[in-house]
Specification:
The chain is an alpha+beta fold. It contains 3 helices and 3 strands.
Length: about 100
């Protein structure tokens, strides 16, 4: 917590947004990624990039749920798989989209 007044040029601290998934969060994003089939992840990345689009991987602020941002055709879509199976299904669907 800042006790001194802000100086010109200081950037205010960013406040975490409430996580709408927090109450239903069932795991931890890191273990979801670690258990996922690496080939499914690589195939999805390759398909998206080959299609001229982008995909970003992360987690919610509490790191309880995986966050995937898919940038395609000027649109941005976010996915929040809560299990390894949901992650693999979402990435497999993306791969099929580009075939």
């Amino acid at each position: 917590m800042r006790t001194q007044p802000n100086k010109p040029g200081d950037v205010p601290a960013k406040k975490a947004k409430p996580n709408p998934w927090a109450k239903i969060s069932v795991g931890d994003a890191v273990s979801i990624y670690q258990r996922a089939n690496g080939e499914i992840i690589i195939d999805a990345i390759a398909a998206v990039v080959k299609g001229g689009d982008a995909i970003l991987f992360g987690a919610t602020s509490d790191r309880g749920v995986v966050s995937i941002t898919w940038l395609h055709g000027g649109k941005k879509e976010k996915l929040y798989p809560m299990t390894t199976e949901q992650l693999e299904d979402a990435l497999s669907a993306l791969t099929l989209y580009y075939e």
